[in-house]
Design brief:
134 residues, Cytidine Deaminase, domain 2, five-stranded mixed beta sheet, 5 helices, binds tetrahydrodeoxyuridine, Cytidine deaminase, cytidine deaminase activity, metal-binding, Cytidine_deaminase-like, EC 3.5.4.5
Amino acid sequence: MASLDTLFEAARAIQAKAYAPYSRFKVGAAIATADGRIFAGCNVENAAYPVGSCAEAGAIAAMVAGGASRIAEIVVMGEGEHLVTPCGGCRQRIREFAAPETPIHVAGPEGIRKSFTLDELLPFSFGPDNLSDR
Ligand code: THU
């Protein structure tokens, strides 16, 4: 698997490409898959505000387009002093392709600030199993 340093650098590089002229808040996300690949995404805003998409959504779309479907770990890099944890919708997006213990690392420009598991950020979650075991 890719090292956490490599994943952090991928998140930093893609964050710089974010299209965020409205919020001026750039976010980058980088996913590592178990086979050592990295897929990255940035937020892409829109003049019709609700149509914009989050960095995590872009990274997940790239992963699926690349033929992968499991997140081994993910780094999310935001701006400012606060922890930029994935938004509620993105927690659910990550949940589709991750395990309860999958690490979600929240970073700032200086490095990883805090690491969570998916289960910590989205406990008692709804997922594919709910639909398959009926
Ligand atoms: N944003 C993300 O890309 N990921 C998150 O988890 C939190 C928020 C983006 C959406 C919007 O473009 C900007 O940050 C401000 O909310």
